[in-house]
Design a protein that fits this description.
This protein is of the alpha+beta class. The protein folds into 3 domains: 113 residues, DNA Polymerase III, subunit A, domain 2 (DNA Polymerase III, Chain A, domain 2, Roll); 122 residues, DNA Polymerase III, subunit A, domain 2 (DNA Polymerase III, Chain A, domain 2, Roll); 114 residues, Roll (DNA Polymerase III, Chain A, domain 2), CATH 3.10.150. The protein has 7 helices and 26 strands.
Length: 366
C-alpha cells in the first residue's frame, strides 16, 4: 500500500474523526485509525464501538490496500510537518513509513481485518433539519447530559420527532433542558431515540460551521449523519427516557424577568466566593430587585444586587450557581425569565414570551 498526499488534504479529515478514539480502550485496535484506498480516495475510519466516524480525501494512490495505524501519533505527525508539504506513505512488513522532505517516521500497524465496523443500517427514516436549528437545539441542551450516571438513559440526549415539532431533551437528575423547533412532518414519523453523549458531542462538532440542511438517518439501533465528507454513525441507547413533560412545572404563579447579561455577570461575581463543593448561591427576590448571596466555609461572602421586573412579594431560595450560568448561556435572547411556584419547588427558566427553550433547575438547601 503506497500513496502520496498533500499535508492539508489529509490533516483536515483526520483531525475531524480522531475525537472518538479511546486513549485506553480494551481493544488495542480501537486506538488506531483504519486507512483504506478506494480509487483515488483515501477512506479514514475511527470507532469506539458505540460511535464510528468516517472521512475521505483525494490522494495519489500508487498501490491499493488497507491497514490501521495509531490514530493520535498519525495525527500528531501530520500536524508537525510543514504547511504545504507532500507526504509519502508506504505500508510494508507491519510498519508504516512516513516521509516528507528530510523527515522520516516509522509507525507500528495492526491488520485492517481486526478493526470492528458498525454494520450499515438496513432500514431507516430520514429527518431533515436546518443546520441553524440543530446547532441551536444542541447548544441549549448538551450541557445538561449526565456523565457516567448509573441511570444510563441520562448519559445522552433524547431526540424526538412528533407530528409538528423536533425536540432535544437532556437531564442529569438535578436539572433538565428542552429545546424545540417547528417541523413539517411529511413522512408522519413519530419517534424518540436516545443518542449517547459522545455521539452528541461529535455531531455538535460536525455541524459547528455548516450552513445547510442536515439529514439524520434514524434506524432502530443506530443514527447516522453525513455532512460533506464526514459521516458519523452512533449506536442508540437502549432505554426509556423519563417522562420529561411531567418534570416541567406548570402554573408558575411567581415570576421575575431580568436582563440576561446583567444577571450572568452578577452570578459570575458571586460565584467567586461560593462554596467550592456545592457552588450554592442564595436568591432573595422582591418586587424590584434580586439579591444574590454566596459564601463559603472560610466565612467569606459575596453579595450582588440587580434590578428585575417582578410580581414576587418576597421569596428566598438557592441554586447551584454553575447550573444558573449554563442556563443563562443557553438562553439566546437579551431577557430571561425565572418562574417559581414556591421557594422549595423547581425553577423554570426561559424567555419571557417564548417556550422554544425551557430549562428546569432544582433548588438547593443551604
Amino acid at each position: 500500500m503506497i500513496f502520496k498526499a498533500q499535508r492539508e488534504s489529509i490533516l483536515a479529515p483526520l483531525n475531524q474523526i480522531c475525537g472518538v478514539v479511546e486513549k485506553k480502550g480494551t481493544l488495542p485496535v480501537l486506538s488506531n485509525v483504519l486507512i483504506k484506498t478506494d480509487g483515488d480516495q483515501l477512506l479514514l475510519t475511527t470507532s469506539d464501538l458505540d460511535v464510528e466516524m468516517r472521512s475521505k480525501c483525494v490522494v495519489d494512490v500508487e498501490e491499493a490496500g488497507e491497514v490501521t495505524v495509531p490514530a493520535q501519533k498519525f495525527l500528531d505527525i501530520c500536524k508537525a510537518l510543514p504547511d504545504g508539504s507532500m507526504i509519502h506513505f508506504e505500508f510494508q512488513q507491519g510498519q508504516c513509513m512516513i516521509k516528507s522532505g528530510q523527515s522520516k517516521f516509522s509507525l507500528s500497524t495492526l491488520p485492517a481485518q481486526e478493526f470492528p465496523l458498525i454494520e450499515e443500517m438496513e432500514s431507516y427514516q430520514q429527518v431533515v433539519i436546518a443546520s441553524t436549528d440543530l446547532q441551536r437545539m444542541l447548544k441549549q441542551t448538551v450541557f445538561c447530559m449526565a456523565v457516567q450516571d448509573v441511570r444510563y438513559f441520562l448519559n445522552g440526549l433524547l431526540f424526538e420527532v412528533s407530528h409538528s415539532k423536533l425536540r432535544c431533551v437532556s437531564a442529569d437528575g438535578h436539572r433538565l433542558a428542552l429545546s424545540e423547533c417547528d417541523y413539517v412532518n411529511d413522512s408522519g414519523i413519530n419517534k424518540q431515540v436516545l443518542i449517547p453523549r459522545k455521539g452528541v458531542l461529535e455531531l455538535q462538532k460536525m455541524i459547528k460551521d455548516v450552513d445547510q440542511d442536515i439529514t439524520l438517518y434514524v434506524g432502530n439501533n443506530h443514527v447516522k449523519v453525513q455532512v460533506e465528507h464526514i459521516a458519523m454513525t452512533s449506536k442508540l441507547i437502549d432505554g426509556k427516557f423519563p417522562d420529561y413533560e411531567a418534570v416541567i412545572p406548570l402554573n408558575m404563579e411567581q415570576q421575575f424577568t431580568a436582563d440576561k447579561e446583567m444577571l450572568r455577570k452578577a452570578l459570575m461575581r458571586v460565584a467567586i466566593l461560593s462554596n467550592e463543593q456545592y457552588k450554592g448561591v442564595k436568591f432573595k427576590i422582591t418586587q424590584d430587585q434580586l439579591e444574590i448571596v454566596g459564601n463559603n466555609p472560610d466565612q467569606e461572602q459575596a453579595e450582588d444586587v440587580i434590578s428585575v421586573q417582578s410580581d414576587i412579594t418576597q421569596i428566598e431560595t438557592a441554586f447551584n450557581v454553575n447550573y444558573l450560568l449554563e442556563a443563562t448561556n443557553a438562553i439566546l435572547d437579551d431577557d430571561i425569565q425565572f418562574s417559581f411556584k414556591e421557594a422549595t419547588s423547581s425553577c423554570l427558566i426561559k424567555h419571557p414570551e417564548r417556550t422554544d427553550c425551557r430549562l428546569v433547575v432544582m433548588p438547593l438547601r443551604i
